[in-house]
TrEMBL record:
It is found in: Membrane. It comes from the Bacteria. This is Manganese transporter. It comes from Pseudoalteromonas ruthenica. Its main location: membrane. GO terms for cellular component: plasma membrane.
Length: 398
């Protein structure tokens, strides 16, 4: 079994936005919403394993598969517009938050240094990794950061010493008053469309030349389950720590930016530094994976070479990174772009999921590796939920 592509997905969805959502969930509702986190992790494992299997069997990433199998030109261009808007522009918009989150983490670790130094430095480090085009180097850096992030957040949870009986009670589904939006946010911050593009692209590249597809799929499933499960464990640690520290205290302004400093009175300086380091790792991993995902999506839909060594691929990734760095460094407000990206993401996710499920059931595409009846039965309620979630998201943005 080879760990790697799945850990990149974990690196992608554990960012400053996830830390904020998980912190607010714990501070506002204690352990009561842990069931939503478990559900979202299981749903993400299912969807990501489908995207990975597509990459193993066809050698195509999801964007390339969309372009290859949508035969009607109008629908193909519509799909290209949605993907480039949601994944390309969306990645650029969210990149500002990723870089800002990593910078806030470093400010927590080195408060005496100038805050203006960190964002450009993190952007340069991310750009150097992306421009190198060396997949193994990028993968190795991200795996290290994910493991670092796991250690610091889990160590902080141990320091917080939560009530285990209360924590396990949170795995029973419930909807405390006013919790619906937070439940949807927990699910939405874990099930994200650009990870489907990222995962399928990375797996398609990694599995090139492998003759035993069944073994490759089995290895990929283990990688996906363990890696995303680890990401869920990190999120659980954040929810639980925030629950211990803040539940019932009315911390309405809690965010990734101030969580580390607000933990100090309860957990001591060590927890403050742990959380700041974790925030830095979360921001940096997402700052690297967001441009990668955007480049896979844009290059695949435009018929460009989807390879980390390709000049076009590097250019698209660097444009996304530079946009985020400018917004983060100048303190510009990317709200309008983020709202547009969220709207297109909400529209794109159910479309992509429907298409992915259709594709995974086609003999001419997947052959003997097409979906089983059990997988389809498990996927149907998930698809209904995604459509509901996306519709709710669109209504809140209008």
């Amino acid at each position: 079994m080879k760990l790697g592509p799945g850990l990149l997905v974990a690196a992608a969805f554990i960012g400053p936005g996830t830390i904020t959502t998980a912190s607010v969930a714990g501070a506002s509702f204690g352990f009561a919403l842990l069931w939503a986190l478990v559900f979202s992790v299981l749903a993400t494992i299912l969807l990501q394993s489908l995207a990975a299997r597509l990459g193993v069997v066809t050698g195509l990433d999801l964007a390339q598969a969309l372009r290859a199998h949508i035969e009607t030109p109008v629908f193909r261009w519509l799909a290209a517009f949605l993907v480039i808007s949601a994944i390309g522009i969306g990645s650029a918009a969210y990149e500002a938050g990723n870089l800002s989150g990593a910078s806030l983490g470093l400010q927590g670790l080195f408060p005496s240094a100038s805050a203006q130094l960190w964002t450009p430095l993190i952007a340069i480090i991310s750009a150097a990794l992306l421009y190198s085009g060396k997949y193994k180097l990028i993968e190795g850096a991200l795996i290290f950061l994910v493991l670092l992030m796991s250690l610091v957040f889990l160590a902080t949870l141990v320091i917080a010493s939560p009530d285990l009986s209360a924590m396990f009670a949170g795995f029973k589904p419930s909807f405390p008053e006013g919790s619906l939006t937070t439940v949807l946010a927990l699910i939405g911050t874990t099930i994200v469309p650009y990870n489907l593009f990222l995962h399928s692209g990375v797996v398609a590249r990694a599995s090139q030349g492998e003759q035993d597809k069944q073994q490759a799929i089995r290895s990929s499933n283990w990688d996906t389950g363990l890696s995303i499960g680890l990401g869920g464990l990190i999120t659980l640690a954040i929810v639980s720590t925030a629950s211990v520290a803040f539940f019932g205290q009315g911390n309405s302004q809690l965010s990734a930016a101030n969580l580390a400093s607000q933990l100090t009175p309860l957990l001591g300086d060590s927890a403050h530094y742990f959380f700041a380091l974790g925030l830095f790792a979360a921001g940096l991993t997402s700052a690297i994976t967001a441009p990668l995902a955007g480049a896979y999506a844009v290059c695949g839909m435009l018929g460009l070479q989807g390879d980390t060594n390709s000049p076009r691929f590097k250019q698209v990734a660097l444009v996304i990174l530079v946009f985020g760095a400018v917004v983060a460094s100048l303190g510009l407000d990317p709200v309008a772009v983020i709202i547009f990206a969220q709207a297109t993401n909400a529209l794109l996710l159910p479309i992509i999921c429907i298409y992915l499920l259709w594709l995974m059931n086609q003999n001419k595409v997947m052959g003997r590796f097409k979906n089983s009846l059990l997988i389809n039965v498990l996927a149907m309620p998930l698809l209904i939920l995604i459509i509901t979630l996306s519709g709710y998201k669109l209504l809140t943005l209008i």
